[in-house]
Amino acid sequence: xxxxxxxxxxxxxxxxxxxxxxxxxxxxQTLSEAMQxxxxxxFIIIFSIPKNQPPQCLFHNYPKHISKINTxxxxxxxxxxxxxxxxxxxxxxxxxxxxxxxxxxxxxxxxYYQLYYSQTQCTDxxxxxxxxxxxxxxxxxxxxxxGYDGFSGHELALLQSLLSIVLSALNKxxxxxxxxxxEKKIKLHNQLQVGIKNFGTSILTSREQDMIQxxxxxxxxxxxxxxxxxxxxxxxxxxxxxxTKLNISSQxxxxxxxxxxxxxxxxxxxxxxxxxxxxxxxxxxx
Length: 286
What we know:
It contains 15 helices and 5 strands. It is α+β, with helices and mostly antiparallel strands. It folds into 2 domains: 5-174, Beta-Lactamase; 183-285, Arc Repressor Mutant, subunit A (Orthogonal Bundle). The chain has helices at 5-21, 27-38, 64-75, 83-88, 99-102, 111-117, 153-161, 163-174, 183-198, 206-216, 221-228, 232-246, 251-261, 263-267, 273-285, and strands at residues 43-50, 56-60, 95-98, 122-133, 136-145. α1 runs antiparallel to α2 (27-38).
């Protein structure tokens, strides 16, 4: 078997630099550059994800015009619907996950994809999830954005080949990361979870609410039918009834309602945030 000694030497040098950077401020940048040496034309973002707290962005090299969406926009509440975030504490092992392997059929046409992924100009994404501590995950996402093709089968195999090095480096560097137990952050996270779950409860039936929750997670009518074990026509009926009660006609309007209601979750944590949003909007209109 032939080996490209020059390329192997260059990669080994990169790995050595990553090892030397563990525990130092420039670790994330060094690891990012090493991975981009193997898989060029990619962008990387690293999050600290404590259990029951909002994530924190530790590093990214996204262009400025989309970095805000990838960091503050995601952390403000969209993370709760993110397939990679859900994977962090669902009992799955640490590893490498490809977006298209996690999402339900129809996700690429969902409004979550349109409102979040399309705004970030993401065309494909994989995520290394490290179980650094019992209640702490470190996620490192490698993304392709608009203007570049998604990952080829060969590139996905190359990324998989980096798994041991990436997870070992992440775990070693972040093992001493302090989970502050910030009461305000914990409270906000819990309120966001409950608020999204309570969205529409004052207006919708329990079945209609099930429908809305699955739509928010990116499910199509077809996959909702399988998930709830009901007919496609029944799904369409419940979906139509829910949209009528919410006075909307599309997923775009649904997501707009959800994100416009989020501010009321903190002020009215045990109530339907939609009801609070609509009552305030009505008062303003009057």
